[in-house]
Specification:
It contains 8 helices and 12 strands. The chain is an alpha/beta fold and 225 residues long.
Length: 225
Amino acid sequence: MAQILAIDDDIEILHFIKTALEREGHQVTTATSTKEVTPAKANFAELILLDVMMPEEDGFTYLQRIRQMVDCPILFVTARTAESDLIHGLGIGADDYIQKPFSVGELRARVTAHLRRESREHRHVLHVGPLILDLTSQQILYQENPLALTKSEYAICAHLMEHAGQVFSKTQLYEAVFGYDRESDESVIVEHIKNIRAKLKKLGLEPIETVWGIGYRWQKENQST
């Protein structure tokens, strides 16, 4: 099972998270502020649950400070549901949101989905147009240089590239990437797609097509493994 770090200034929420996830066999370390979390503790975690609204240092600031040092999935646990907060959080490297209040079932499903995605083994390389999808190193390369994608952005691209030409709804993409299907989470996919497109556009690439009323597809080109 996984080493999970939960940071929230609400002690009752931390107790809820710790109890729910330890019953699944995970080891959960808790902290009521980011100042309690040493770099070593953050790096040891295989997944981080991070509150947004905390005194002294909020979750957004902390994420920006540690994202280049910590490679594991980071999920915001927050009551803030404004679209601007969602856009900002995903843009600075968050993988997902869990909105308060949440159930034990939702918490476990989200955590399990992200941990499962982290543990998948990949063994091949796929060439799609000018891009190379390296499923072993979990990178997408352009002219031999890896794209600066977050883990969730990579996972979305990988799924679309592996099924180039096929249309996926936002719900289907969320379920394929995160393993947890909930209609209200479609906005997460929308913001990740926006971020991916912005990064690819800087390279002169626009491979993700919007199929209005349905979803998205990666434009099909000659590909090989």
